């Protein structure tokens, strides 16, 4: 019997369907994410990976299916409960999505001001901003504007912002896309450090085979709106199935 039989997932997506008019993007997708696990979702461009994550964080409404976060069905929660649950989730958007008119410090302060109640005793906004920037090695950039940062630095600031409320679940949408291989490796390294330091569970959407190899405990392939295959990196990358093979070329 697997140990997972006794542990409930921190996040569970069941039979998720999402259509835009006649276009069925997700046709019954399932994900369970267990404590301190890194699950990677791979799928070709346009397969619905970002749509799935947007349904998960409430930026989009699913056509049907259930989404449970920490055993709570998000569709039946009130606004207060939902807001609280959101502070448990850090989301690194595809691209970096920093506020261009705010400094790095202001970008990081933004989620703190929105969720003041999550601040614990003795933790000042200043200390939290510093800690978050230290985690990504960018304390010196605190007063810069996003336009003064390189692509890799922006991604790190976005990562710091996603982490500032010390979420127990992290969602990463293409964390390494658009970065050079060395910077991509640095970001993957940071993601691992963060997991070790805070015991976070992560759902990671990526095309990047290297990223999937280094970071995943489990990989799910999303094809035609459903789970096509699932397994460890070693299992899937040595698969004889022609569709599965294409992902690991
Ligand atoms: N707001 C929307 N209205 C209509 N169609 C949409 C909307 N958002 C996404 N789609 C469609 O849903 C499909 C999946 O989009 P999605 O952004 O999830 O792809 P993806 O798997 O994240 O791709 P990529 O790897 O390029 O980021 C696409 O065909 C897209 O056109
Ligand atoms: Mg996407």
Overview of this structure, please?
The chain is α/β, with parallel strands linked by helices. It has a single domain, classed as P-loop containing nucleotide triphosphate hydrolases (Rossmann fold, 3-Layer(aba) Sandwich). The protein has nine helices and ten strands. The protein has helices spanning about 50-55, 80-85, 105-115, 125-135, 150-165, 180-200, 210-215, 235, 240-245; strands at about 10-20, 25-35, 40, 65-70, 70-75, 90, 170-175, 200-205, 220-225, 225-230. The strands form two sheets. It has a six-stranded mixed β-sheet. Strands 2-1-4-5 form a four-stranded antiparallel β-sheet, covered by helices on one side. A hairpin with a 2-residue loop joins strand 9 (about 220-225) and strand 10 (about 225-230). The chain is globular. The chain starts with 10 loop residues before the first strand and ends with a helix. The mean pLDDT is about 90. The structure holds adenosine-5'-triphosphate and magnesium ion. Adenosine-5'-triphosphate binds near residues 43, 46, 47 and 94. Adenosine-5'-triphosphate (ATP) binds near residues 49 and 51. Pfam families: ABC_tran. One of its GO terms (molecular function) is ATP binding. InterPro entries: AAA+_ATPase, ABC_transporter-like_ATP-bd, ABC_transporter-like_CS, P-loop_NTPase. Keywords: ATP-binding, Nucleotide-binding, Transport. This is Phospholipid/cholesterol/gamma-HCH transport system ATP-binding protein.
